[in-house]
């Protein structure tokens, strides 16, 4: 037995005796003290301890340590990962050999740093099975020097779907780094054939859709194969990604296909992405077809239409926008169409004031305040007036933040005097006892309108203000105030990050009582959602969140962020999106991936997770390796797709396991 194991075993037993948490008597997966010790090393980010386990003779333990190393993500472990990966070839138990290599390949993905060609070649040479090759290829795409990684798909035989999937994932990771070439694009198009597995088609479609994020993408996609793939695709997730890809084709090539699709009953996500992909000059026929979706379709589609109208507001006369506002069923769509109207030359102060008066809740008023601040200073006076009468603390804070944006975008000299009023309100907000108010005040003063001389003239000790907000509960507030302190000194604040302290160790007395896959029932104002959590993959996160659920923490909280075709996010006790618990969690990564119905933990960066969670609407590969996955929705997925901003969690409870 390793010395580090003895140390952590003693420490774990001590922690268990000190816990005051009332246990629930259920036999769980962490009765094994060695496994507990490995995850304790992971939680403490103890690379040396995990390397010792990886170098031991027990390959079951070594595999578990490699999986834990994926969460730590330390480049110092690369040699140990490589050695363990190669040793796996000598294991007689084939299933164990595969597991060791898969866990080592996952650790490589997270620890790779600069994955040089000789190392990557060695991993591919010793790979046992296609799935291991897939994981290594994904790691090459993320960690290898771009010219080397981009050559890999040309060196492989693509007869095995798992290897093909790995090559597409390699291309996707390169794309996320801003790189693509014709060979990779052509390979992606080849994987869209209907005979290929749906998972491969989804990943290929996601890759092609992501190409539009590359600045100055240098060559056009071939229209015929892309249109043919879109028409033939029956999987909603793959089809929605292909819809986004069509935006890279000339509109005269796609107009008829898009018109036909918009008039066909398809999954709402496909319609959303068709509309999201429409740029300027998409023609009267499509404009009419899109506008007809207001008031007659899914609220996410309706909002996508409204946002499309905002992007192309010059094409819509005021009378038409008036009509669309009257037809809109959802408040978010009404707000966005009103934004399109306000972007015109006509003063819409009366309409905006009426909308604010009729708003059902603070979330709706916050949305209006937000886009008012993104315009020029035309509505700055109205924002100041509404700020004085706003009763909802979060909405009032958003109005304050909007005012700082309006000052930054100022284009009318007669409003210059209002800048002093806004500055005074921001200074007062910095001293607020409300964390979100202090956050938006700092964020507002970070705008271009307020130079360092202005900050210095305020006479405030920004460093002391930052120190009043303890970590990690007020992480984002502390972060903004620290950046403000740097700006006041004339120092670079753009890349400043705040290290989050380790202050929330795993409560093993609680975790040991949990089943491997607890079922959580969430009753919302839209219906019931059942989620199955994966304790073995994320014991610290699942243990902490289930304890909050057991305490009734989430009952009555709202979904403060919903992005159609992407996520529904809630669990913030402040409802602002910047709130958190007193403790922070370590990021925990596993082989689980983000697909439709994945339940993840929101964060502001590695090891900053807390109580906020989100549920995905579809396949979202760009989240993999960045956010902890708690588990997956196993019932009520239709309810997840109906959730909107302002919907509430009535109750969350643990139903035991299946």
Q: Give the helix tally.
A: 32
Ranges where pLDDT stays below 50 over 5 or more residues in a row are: 5-26
Helix content: 40-55%
Question: Rounded to an integer, what's the Rg over CA atoms?
Answer: 26 Å
Total beta strands = 8
Chain-averaged pLDDT: 90
How far apart the termini lie comes to: 36 Å
Strand content: 5-15%
Describe the strand arrangement of the main beta sheet, using strand numbers: 3-4-6-5-7-2-1-8
Q: Structural class, please?
A: alpha+beta
Largest sheet: 8 strands, antiparallel
Question: What does the overall shape look like?
Answer: globular
Note down, in words, how this protein is organized:
With 658 residues, the chain is an alpha+beta fold. It contains 32 helices and eight strands. Strands 3-4-6-5-7-2-1-8 form an eight-stranded antiparallel β-sheet. β1 (518-524) and β2 (527-533) form a beta hairpin. Mean pLDDT is 90; it is low at 5-26.
Blueprint of the fold:
Elements: H1 3-18, H2 33-43, H3 47-54, H4 59-72, H5 78-87, H6 94-111, H7 117-125, H8 130-143, H9 146-151, H10 161-176, H11 182-190, H12 198-210, H13 223-232, H14 236-245, H15 251-262, H16 268-276, H17 284-291, H18 299-311, H19 318-327, H20 331-342, H21 349-358, H22 362-373, H23 380-389, H24 393-408, H25 416-430, H26 435-445, H27 452-457, H28 462-467, H29 475-488, H30 508-511, E1 518-524, E2 527-533, H31 539-550, E3 559-563, E4 567-570, E5 598-601, E6 613-616, E7 629-635, H32 637-642, E8 649-657
Antiparallel strand pairs: 1-2, 1-8, 2-7, 3-4, 4-6, 5-6, 5-7
Helix pairs in contact: 1-2, 2-4, 3-4, 4-6, 5-6, 6-8, 8-10, 10-12, 12-14, 13-14, 14-16, 15-17, 16-18, 18-20, 19-20, 20-22, 22-24, 23-24, 24-25, 24-26, 25-26, 26-29
